[in-house]
Amino acid sequence: MKRKINITVTALFLALIFGFGTAFWIVPDLTFSPEENRSLQTFPDLTAENWLDGKISAQLIDYYSDQFPLRHMWVGLHAVGELGALRGECNGVLVGKNGQLAVRRFDAYLSRFERLENTDYYSPAHVEKGLNALIALDETLSAQRIPLCVLLAPRTIDVTIGDFAYPSDISDGLDETIRTTLSGAHVNSVELLSTFRELHQAGEYVYYRTDHHWTTQGAYTAYTAVMESWGMQDQILPAEAFAVKQIPAFYGTTHARAGLAFIPPDTLEIWEAADDSRYTVLERKGDELRAVIESGFISEKYLTEKDKYSAFLDGTHDLLFILDKEAAAQGESRPRLLLAKDSFANSMVPFLARHFDILMVNLTGNTDYTHLSALCEEYACGRVLVVCNRENLITSDCLTRLH
Question: Distance between CA 255 and CA 35 in Å, rounded?
Fold first, then answer.
């Protein structure tokens, strides 16, 4: 009897191993995971460059992880197991009060070829390098008589830390470093962590529960702070000037990473004004300029998809112009703003565009738009605004390369 049980267990084990192994090579590779809202690693190119850069091993590991059969089911089971073990987190995502989620673990940037993987800390030297680059940029732009404003948006874990049984030391230490370094160099830096914490604790909807971005109300709060830093507080549009359109069933990137199906969704808010139709969003690729949104700031197609946040400005593009069509048609000259940003800025643009024509460059894309002083000269920009989430300060070199 015992021998039969052993044979049965062994047969089942071998069937699983060979079954998954066969399925791995038979099932076509997927390029995108709608559950995780991200691109998946396909089989890497076996080029000499990849071998010499040392990228091939990391790409192969990601490939086997991303293309594993029934991957989404295993991610969900792993998440449930972590919660069952009372860890208070799943797949590096903290689970807090009222279904609040926040990324705790990430890969901290150390150098071009080195990361501190799966950590909740960061490299102080790398953060300092990014801040020093902003200080040097401010000096360069000041020589050109171009004012700079820096907004390093807090991460969700920084803002919602009170919802978790997790210490705030790292968030507070990072905030202190940013504030003292930039203010000590007299850089116009908008610091919003304490403001957002107070609003969140008061029950205001300023950061999503399932996504890493601020909400449209949070973006409006950031817009007012930036305008005040420029001495333009008299021109701030009141919140009452906008009608709020609510888009239900929004699950963001943090929810996708956590793999917890029972967390309730967010509501995406679109703030609309009567004159939205006079604005247009244009993309430049090479010498070609085309409209990605003919009228307004919202790409409606995304509102029925999982990636609803990409409705703002049609998602991520390397270089965009946001213009007032009516003003241009009448020959009116508007001040031009260079906005160097990551995706946090996308939901701010509908507010800023009422005051400026905007040249918007993506700091986290494939094209290098880090020479901001040259862009100002080329496109006659009178102001520069850098908007970047603090996670990108920690996990990438997009800010260290600014000049």
Answer: 9
Q: Please compute, for residue 312, the number of CA atoms within 13 A of its CA located in the half-sphere on the CB side.
A: 22
Q: What is the DSSP string of 171-231?
A: HHHHHHHHHHHHHHTT--B---HHHHHHHHHTT---B-SSSSSB-HHHHHHHHHHHHHHTT
Phi, psi (degrees; rounded to nearest 5) at 379: -110, 10
Average pLDDT of the chain is 87
Q: CB 57: neighbour CB atoms within 10 A?
A: 11
Which among 91, 58, 130, 101 is positioned nearest to 394, based on CA atoms? 130
Q: Write the CB contacts of 400 (distance below 8 Å, at least 6 apart in sequence).
A: 126, 129, 130, 133
State if pTM tops 0.70: yes
Which residue, 223, 211, 222, is CA-closest to 391? 211
- What is the secondary structure of 321-336 as a DSSP string? EEEEHHHHHTT----E
Are the CB atoms for 318 and 335 separated by under 8 Å? no
Collect all residues with Cβ–Cβ distance below 8 Å to 235 and sequence separation of at least 6. 227, 355
- Residue 313, classified by CB atoms within 10 Å of its CB into exposed (0-12), middle (13-18) or buried (19+), is buried
> Of 206, 120, 112, 148, which Cα lies nearest the Cα of 400?
112
Q: What is the pLDDT of residues 106-115, one digit of tens each?
A: 999 988 788 8
> Taking the domains of the chain in order of start, what are their residue ranges?
2-89, 106-395
The b/e string for 264-284 (b: 16+ C-beta within 10 A; e otherwise) is ebbebbbbebeebebbbbbbe
Query: Position 378: which residue type?
Result: E
Helices vs strands, H then E, count in the chain: 14, 16
- Per residue in 341-362, pLDDT (tens digit) is 999 999 999 999 999 999 999 9
The count of residues in the chain is: 403
> What long-range pairs does 103-112 form, CB within 8 A, spacing at least 24?
103/155, 103/156, 103/157, 103/212, 103/254, 103/257, 103/391, 104/157, 104/166, 106/391, 106/394, 106/395, 107/395, 108/394, 108/395, 109/394, 109/395, 109/396, 109/397, 112/397
C-alpha 264/C-alpha 187 separation (Å) is 40
Other CB atoms within 10 A of residue 285 CB: 11
Beta carbons of 174 and 158 less than 8 angstroms apart:
yes
DSSP H helices in 86-168: 124-143, 156-159
Pairwise CA distance, residues 219 & 222, whole Å = 5
